[in-house]
Design brief:
Blueprint (H helix, E strand, L loop, with lengths): L2 H41 L11 H7 L4 H13 L3 E4 L3 E4 L4 E4 L6 H4 L6 E12 L2 H7 L6 E11 L2 E11 H4 L12 H9 L3 E12 L2 H7 L6 E11 L4 E10 L3 E4 L7
Parallel strand pairs: 3-10
Antiparallel strand pairs: 1-2, 4-5, 5-6, 6-9, 7-8, 8-9
Helix pairs in contact: 1-3, 2-3
Length: about 260
Amino acid sequence: MSPTDRIRDHAGQGATTVAARRARRLRADRARQLADLLRHQLLAGGFPDGALPHETILATDYSASRNTVREALDLLRSEGLVERLPGVGTVVVAQKYPHGLDRLMGLAETLREHGRVTNKVRTVGPVPAPSPVADRLRVPPGTDVLYVERLRRLNGLPLSLDLTYIPLDVGTALLGEDLENTDIFRLLETHTGIPLGHAEISLEAVNADAHSAAVLQAPRGAALLMLERLTYLADGRPVDLEFIRFRGDRIAMSGLLHRSL
């Protein structure tokens, strides 16, 4: 074979390889798209009998190949949402609970339709406020604030690890309260005599550190949803700074947004 023929042959093999890679990439893209659609359906209760349609039906309904459907189901399986049972098919094995972001409510208020929220108080007591906490709560650095760490469960399953800082003049009254079964929001309104007004929030994904993973019974390094929330009384005073780590496989955040220019 001449050098020219070898170059042409190599180029042809390269084109075949590139085409194969492109096909795999496109199938992976379509699998992610299908997984997103199926995830929304199962989280919204779209499969009331707990079983997904057969792969051939899904392939027809979504104009996808069987291989694409299988890859999409594998993605949902890796998230712990579905499982394949011999003789049964693909079934829903986990549920994510909806957590709204458009109303200021405690966790028990938010999830009251889905079961009972209980709290295990791991730590409670005064601590010197670190500078970032003092700045947010508008107290002098080093001033004592009430620190509360709680493991929160829904229907007995670990759901979130909450780290809360409250100004001590407000927080002292909470020490004698039932923090195991009562949302702190309700206690703040009761003891201050002022309703809560608004909150600043930020939401990001973080990896579970060794401590969080152990408390939440999640794999170390698993994705957690970190909600940082600074809550104000109606008179504008900040009274509650929280760092909440949610198990990402058990909670789904949602809200209603209006366009404003």
